[in-house]
């Protein structure tokens, strides 16, 4: 595992704390501005600084990560959090992480998504996704072109642990994508999904699959001190079977020509090469290891190993399966041993696997293998069934043919179901389709409540707006929505009573949701685009724009847009409810003849003023009779102000005052997060008489225990219930359903 002569260096590296690393969210318009801000301001302030007797080195970019978007420093996370000299830098990291502009992620954890080679049209499955840092990377790659609000691809992020799913939701929601769905299943038996292609039901195969399996974690010793005490060889023996089952299920669901990345944060060959070799052997040539030696230049790596031994907890070693006594054959399995047949071994190309050793570039330990599927798995090979054309549903034209560009209709591999069972399934699907066409509201509910007892919380259903829903017409008219606006993709989380929030998904995810309501336990999907505004009908529309969905909605909005200059943006972001007289004369003219209500505030950079902010900004706002205000969460406000060169460090003092209040006051404040802008408070009703008071705050209260501190699969489970928001918490009046 460790080259000759390097053992001491390897062990010395493991005994040093892991350096802090961060990744700037790629694909965002603001990425270049954040990078510029980091380099020119925060990194320079770290120069010549000493903390606890340790000289702070200038952060360095990871040479193998594209476009200088990943950086590491010699500071440990503990020092970053505790040191007063680094308070400003740490506050910047916390705030930008909450906005989704930066992710605190271990360097080696960034490798698997990069090796997937994701394109915006790819259908992606992340099998063991929590806590979600790699999922976030995948979402970024889908949105590589920020001018396309709805990429054709999507990410289905799965985790077996219900609580960790909410941690995953928190991570994903920072990126405000309509193309992510979080589901809760055992990865080793994740169900086959169906999609509608030109009126036919077809099995969904994924173009890319990330298979980052549970592991013993011996590569994480630098940050998980417990591993030193708890590690035994038994860990790997117990996990090997599960890892192989998950990887097998992954390749079954992979499209021909698709790529699956298998990874662990372990260096034990029983969890790594043994799993890959077993998978290759039983694939009978359907899979091959990809040669990725030319990818990620600058990344120091070791080749996969081809020979290893298996050891029991008591210290017994075994070189071959035949040597294992019968009373030990439940603990040790034949798939744990290396392949002895030289020809077979050579054909597997196990040296194409990647091993990352901690002392080579000051990281954690890691293993990655990239598999390509050349043909269906041997146990799935059979003639494709003739698909019966299903009755076309009215209003579903946007779903039909959604995936035809991605090659899904060409794949002949079928789910492994007995013939009778399969025909029964097709019949059920047809019947459900017929019923659904009769039903005005298209509902994707959770499985029946009896099944739900196996899991945690019961989720609210996903209800797509019917085509003729009277709710939509005033919205369309008020914001002059483009005829191309995909209104069929709007959904709510309630079947009865007033719809308080409207969410949006891509048409491809809509296709998945509608066709798999009985198979999937969906935890969360979609981004919020509109919120009900108390008595908003008086202004012509009952729904105001939501900031988290504004970049998705903006291309379709043709009315109520006010272009503002940079000075106006500063006023909007620093003052709670500024009078119109404080804005530029151009802005005052634009709002003069505009009716009261929700508006879009757009800043366009001026290329002739290179010192000004050079990326566009879109903000949600509210226009009153005498005032104009922005509805932007606190951390997002701070982000824009930093990018404009405004000093915001003093904002920390307010947080400290908040902490000094009584527990009841703090609890009251924390419950008034961004939902306060959802205008459900009684105070908001005063808007009719006093347009200056649309809710007490426009800011989101800071989350004390950020998900950025939980970058690996062994940390932070207890934080998930505090950190992860779900749609149910916004929709349900019943506090027992709230996940916050």
From TrEMBL:
Residues 380-446, 655-740 are annotated as: Disordered. GO terms for molecular function: tRNA (cytidine-5-)-methyltransferase activity; tRNA binding. It is an enzyme of class 2 (transferase). It catalyses: cytidine(34) in tRNA precursor + S-adenosyl-L-methionine = 5-methylcytidine(34) in tRNA precursor + S-adenosyl-L-homocysteine + H(+); cytidine(48) in tRNA + S-adenosyl-L-methionine = 5-methylcytidine(48) in tRNA + S-adenosyl-L-homocysteine + H(+); cytidine(50) in tRNA + S-adenosyl-L-methionine = 5-methylcytidine(50) in tRNA + S-adenosyl-L-homocysteine + H(+); a cytidine in mRNA + S-adenosyl-L-methionine = a 5-methylcytidine in mRNA + S-adenosyl-L-homocysteine + H(+). Its EC number is 2.1.1.203. The active site is at residue 265. Coiled coil: none annotated. Residues 10-374 form the SAM-dependent MTase RsmB/NOP-type domain. Residues 719-729 have a biased composition (Low complexity). S-adenosyl-L-methionine binds at residues 128-134, 159, 186, 212. Keywords: Methyltransferase, Nucleus, RNA-binding, S-adenosyl-L-methionine, Transferase, tRNA processing, tRNA-binding. GO terms for biological process: tRNA methylation. GO terms for cellular component: cytoplasm; extracellular region; nucleus. It comes from the Eukaryota. It is found in: Nucleus; Secreted, Extracellular exosome. Residues 655-672, 681-692, 730-740 have a biased composition (Basic and acidic residues). PROSITE patterns: SAM_MT_RSMB_NOP. Belongs to the class I-like SAM-binding methyltransferase superfamily. RsmB/NOP family. This is tRNA (cytosine(34)-C(5))-methyltransferase. It comes from Chloroceryle aenea. The lineage of its organism: Eukaryota, Metazoa, Chordata, Craniata, Vertebrata.
